[in-house]
Amino acid sequence: MEYWSAKMRRQSPPEISVVVVTFCSEEYIQGCLDAVRIYSPVGTEICVIDNDSNDRTWEILQGELQTGRVIAQKNSENLGYSRAANQGLAMTAGEFVVFLNPDTKVGSGWLDPLMRALRKPDVGAAGPLSNAVAGAQYVEHYVPLDAVPTSDVPAYLRKHFGGHVAEVKLLIGFCIMTKRRLLDKLGPFDEKLVLGADDLEFSWRLRCNGYRLIACLDSYVEHACGASFSKLDEATKHKWNMESNMALKKKLERHYGSIQGVTSEELFGCTIFEDALKFPEDS
Fold first, then answer.
1. CA–CA separation, 193 vs 191, rounded Å?
2. Among 104, 107, 30, 103, which residue's Cα sits nearest to residue 70?
3. Distance CA 44, CA 134 (A)
4. 33: Cβ–Cβ under 8 A, 6 or more apart, which residues?
5. pLDDT value for 43
6. Where along the chain do its domains lie?
7. Which of 82, 87, 128, 275 has a beta carbon 3.0–4.6 Å from 219's, enabling a disulfide?
8. Which residues in the chain land under pLDDT 70?
9. What fold, for 5-277?
10. CA–CA distances in Å: residue 97 to residues 18, 76, 142, 208, 238
């Protein structure tokens, strides 16, 4: 595989690593990285894996590399999300790892609640609320966005929901923090899930191994939702989505023996996987 990378030199391993997988994210990547630097502790490690973007994404990342503020790698082909995320995991060293989408923008106080949740030994992963996300992490379950300016949402959540969490069955992968030791123990993302369903499988696997998933009600990350995903051609998008859904369905069937009559609500606490459960095996 052809790639170009650079690594920051450190006296000791960082506590937190942030891994971002990009594909044609020129509109968002600079804002994403700037926000992570502004609102994260000094020494936070940032790693970007570019899945062969054909826009200005890599040009922007080269500028970041020259400053030494990121670790970055450009793949010579699009490897899908899971493989690229695992590359980023292998290139980083933080005790805590955040997998963050490039079309996100973190804000004040985003990390503290996630860290607080993960310091409990039985918590496997934690995630924030957002404006564009399914399930319990949708911010409008807790505050109407038309009543609070977007810039004020983090402060509002800290004031009204400080220290409050919700235990969930699924954490959406736009921003998910976990512990490196759990990834070492249980394995990284399943690379058979090329694009999509990676967060469902990872959430399910953590729960199967006795770990809780926590949505932090006082952490907020803005999300454009699907920006990179939308840049894929329709045929590839459909193919990879189907492959990922079928791989997860087969894994569930191996685990439970049969998933006939099982609903997405039972598995993940929402209807996000309902249609995939109905796929025939030869789809």
1. 5
2. 30
3. 28
4. 20, 46, 48, 64, 69, 70
5. 93
6. 5-277
7. 128
8. 1-11, 225-230, 281-283
9. Spore Coat Polysaccharide Biosynthesis Protein SpsA; Chain A (3.90.550)
10. 6, 25, 27, 20, 29
